[in-house]
Design a protein that fits this description.
By secondary structure, the chain is mainly β. The protein is built from 2 helices and 10 strands, in the order H-E-E-H-E-E-E-E-E-E-E-E. The protein has one domain: Porin, CATH 2.40.160.20. Helices cover 12% and strands 51% of the residues. Strands 1-2-3-4-5-8-9-10 form an 8-stranded antiparallel beta barrel. A two-stranded antiparallel sheet has the order 6-7. Strand 8 and strand 9 form a beta hairpin.
Length: 194
């Protein structure tokens, strides 16, 4: 086993452990609101867009709060689309579940900003995407891992809105060849439900 493969297995184990954790209110009442999400991204000639939801996870909330952290669980349904001039699949669907760890400054001017990282599991409707550009994608398998890092800001009444630019990488972690993967930049807009 390679070091990269071992890291991905550990990350998947952490993701599964977080998924098994009970949902519930976080340390602060305002943080317990679920959020609806809309996502758009682009990279390697693939447009990515979709919707999802984000919940707080009660697992370890008190311990994490001491360090300015909280855990969240995101679920997304995304469409990956390439140009339609090439033969083969021009789009596929991606369903994913990703636990996130979020840090925000405790107080001061930057309190409304945050940084979050997540590692999760992804399921694709197809193994490949065809494109007339130099990027054709063969993912090797429909089961994928996804890593995301984002920085964002909360705003509006009661910090009801969030916007978070991000970088996402999706690949099968070397479990099967080929492993073209997909890396892209994007932005997620979130709305907290009252």
């Amino acid at each position: 086993m390679t070091v990269s493969w071992c890291r991905r297995v550990k990350a998947a184990a952490i993701a599964v452990a977080l998924l098994a954790a009970p949902f519930g209110a976080a340390a602060q009442q305002g943080d317990a609101r679920p959020l609806l999400t809309a996502t758009y991204g682009y990279g390697q000639s693939v447009a990515v867009y979709g919707i999802g939801a984000l919940w707080h996870i009660a697992w370890g909330a008190e311990t994490l709060a001491r360090y300015g952290l909280d855990a969240r669980l995101g679920v997304d349904v995304l469409r990956w689309q390439v140009d339609s001039n090439a033969p083969g699949n021009h789009y596929l669907w991606n369903g994913n579940v990703t636990p996130y760890l979020r840090w925000r400054p405790a107080e001061g001017f930057w309190h409304s900003t945050f940084v979050e990282v997540g590692v999760g599991i992804q399921l694709l409707s197809e193994n490949s995407l065809s494109s007339s550009s130099r990027f054709a994608h063969d993912f090797g398998t429909r089961f994928q891992f996804g890593e995301r890092i984002a920085a964002g800001v909360s705003f509006g009444p009661h910090a009801r809105y969030e916007i978070a630019p991000f970088f996402q990488h999706v690949s099968n972690g070397g479990t099967k060849v080929p492993n073209d993967g997909l890396s892209y930049f994007g932005v997620t807009v979130r709305l907290a439900l009252e």
